[in-house]
Amino acid sequence: MKIRHCVEKSNVENSLLVRDPLKIRHAIVKFGRISSLSGLIDPKSHLNLDYPLHLVKNCIISEKFELDSTIEISNGGFIFAIVNPNSYQHYGKYDYTQNLQNMIESVKKLRNMDVNTTTTIDEHKIKSSYTCTPDKVNNTAKID
């Protein structure tokens, strides 16, 4: 699995230059289509002349930023749009490792929120003469 920088076709000039580099996203491509898509890039890491290790220089071109959207391909492979060298700026020192750790912690918190959003019911506090049994075949509930 290779993560690629991706830009929408509407954000690419005829000369294959990216119009707005702040609208670049990370994507995973399978069989010429987007199978996974992230949020927008962080200019402090991707367009930062003070952090040249991760400068985005070229991007694959998608029809749209949607899952299953097609990627521009020629006989030689992907067609790439180029980031204009004028798009890079000096944002200052960037701690990629710390940023990665912060992102991992944020993802863990989001995952924990999904797991912990269920409500715990104390069965002894329910005072109903009805019992409810789920009908899994019809996706309904039967009240006895």
Task: Specify the number of helices.
Answer: 2
Strand content: 25-35%
Unreliable spans: 116-144
Rg, please?
24 Å
Helix content: 10-25%
Strand/helix succession? EEEHEEEEHEE
The outline comes out as globular
| Secondary-structure content class | alpha+beta
The averaged pLDDT comes out at 81
| Strand arrangement in the largest pleated sheet | 3-2-1-4-7
The count of strands amounts to 9
State the major sheet.
5 strands, mixed
Kindly, what is the distance between the CA atoms of the first and last residues, rounded to a whole number of angstroms?
Answer: 52 Å
Structure description:
The N and C termini lie far apart (52 Å). The strands form three sheets. A five-stranded mixed beta sheet has the order 3-2-1-4-7, with no helix packed on it. The C terminus is likely disordered. The radius of gyration is 24 Å and the shape is globular. It is α+β, with helices and mostly antiparallel strands and 144 residues long. The protein has a domain of 91 residues. The protein has two helices and nine strands. Helix content is 17%, strand content 28%.
Helices, strands, pairings?
Elements: E1 3-8, E2 25-30, E3 33-40, H1 43-46, E4 58-62, E5 73-74, E6 77-78, E7 80-82, H2 96-115, E8 132-135, E9 140-143
Parallel strand pairs: 1-4
Antiparallel strand pairs: 1-2, 2-3, 4-7, 5-6, 8-9
Descriptive key words:
two-stranded antiparallel sheet, disordered C terminus, single chain, 144 residues, alpha+beta, globular
Q: What can be said about this structure in brief?
A:
By secondary structure, the protein is of the alpha+beta class.
